[in-house]
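Re: that chain you flagged

S.,

Sorry for the slow reply, it's been a week of failed gels. I finally had a moment to sit down with the sequence you sent. For the record, here it is as I used it:
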Amino acid sequence: MMDAIARLYLGRLLRSPRGRAFMLHFMVQAEEGDELGVFDALLARVDDPELNKLVRVHRDDETRHAAMLRECLQRNGLEPEPVPPELHVVARIGHHAGGVGESFVDGRATVMQMYLLLQVIEERGVRQFPKIAKAMRPFDPESAAVIDRITRDEERHVKYAKAISRRYAPDGDTLERELTRLRTAERRAFEENGRALLAFAVERGLDASHGLERLAWRVLATSAPCEPRALRQPSSQH
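Prediction finished late last night. Pasting the structure tokens below so you have them in one place:
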């Protein structure tokens, strides 16, 4: 049900210039903020020169993607709404996956786990980016084309992640169990993030809706389940 609402709302959001600016900035943050932390952790922990080279290539792709999306923002001439910490989806995945990122830094998680984490993140991008591009295309075809190019890179990144996680897995059963666990965590995180994004966008009026339509979106946003305690922001920050 929430997925259907999110698809419907995406089209409404991207009709608005402010909504398009926010979505582009949201994607910049995901490419440049959330995932780069995973790469930094890998580079700090792993001595294998071949793996380090692949990590740097992957990281540089994400940095390039962020620059491409920033160019879209500049071309539109809009100042985007800042993306608050509670909309950082990788943090949510880590929360539901038992803090896999932090456990990698302190030596408890493995390279296999970190690349499976990257795999599920990239798989979600491969599924979602075409939907964003499709909804964006009637209003900003140039940005939609940029998102399509980024999607093709993400498809390649999924292949990287699968190959590296298999290489570092102790056995196939362990890999499949961990992949299932992380996919479950990612799915819960994505659903939560969709609700949080809906609530944020409606509250800020990013969709430019009015009257009864705005009221309907507010009802849907406020009926979403509560956020996990670990991801709530202190009241002083609101």
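What I noticed first: The two ends are 29 Å apart (CA to CA).

Talk soon,
D.
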